[in-house]
From TrEMBL:
Residues 30-49 bind DNA. Keywords: DNA-binding. InterPro entries: Homeodomain-like_sf, HTH-type_Tx_Regulator, HTH_TetR, TetR_C_Firmicutes. This is HTH tetR-type domain-containing protein. SUPFAM superfamilies: Homeodomain-like. PROSITE patterns: HTH_TETR_2. Residues 7-67 form the HTH tetR-type domain.
């Protein structure tokens, strides 16, 4: 019974975090506002988290751990990029966690979250596919172009309330990966 109650409390806290992130932002958020929004007492909050930074860190880590797991299981037939199947799974995961992702990327945590996504993509890529020590463009610029670009596409899609379908986003990412930058804006 205790584990069910703890899980329910954590879910209430997460939902309160999402609401307050959207309305107040992380910096203005307080433990008082969190517990009031969640409908719990302060003690329940502190049974689960040390403070709001710990809460944010745990929620963000869980989100990106799941994305990293999707990428690490990628057994696509490409030698240098993530497979369309893995990208599709990430799109689906983000859709299923839209409220959280949207709150993060429309808050004062946006920069940190986008950077984390880029790092997760790079780590998974290195883990499975390549040595990025000698790319055609000097590091860290090469990684920023490749992984920062994909992270930016996901970020924009989320911030725009996922206006494009998952299939359309996958098509955009595939075109980005296959098209040299100087050709992207050409007719």
């Amino acid at each position: 019974m205790g584990m069910i109650r703890k899980t329910a409390s954590k879910e209430k806290i997460k939902q309160a975090f999402i609401v307050l992130l959207e309305t107040e932002g992380f910096q203005k958020m307080t433990i008082s506002s969190l517990v009031k929004q969640a409908g719990i007492n302060r003690g329940t909050f502190y049974l689960n988290y040390l403070d709001k930074d710990d809460l944010a860190q745990q929620l963000v880590n869980d989100f990106f751990t799941d994305i990293a797991a999707i990428l690490k299981q990628d057994n696509g037939d490409r030698n240098d990029w993530f497979s369309p199947a893995a990208i599709s799974q990430i799109i689906e995961y983000v859709q299923n966690n839209f409220a959280f992702a949207h709150a993060l990327l429309n808050s004062d945590l946006k920069g940190q979250v986008k950077e984390l996504l880029s790092q997760i993509l790079a780590q998974a890529f290195l883990h499975q596919h390549a040595n990025l020590q000698q790319p055609k463009i000097k590091q860290p610029y090469a990684s920023e172009i490749v992984f920062g670009g994909i992270a930016s596409l996901f970020t924009l899609w989320i911030q725009r309330n996922m206006q494009e379908s998952p299939a359309a986003l996958l098509q955009i990412i595939e075109a980005y990966r296959a098209t040299p930058p100087y050709q992207i804006l050409r007719p």
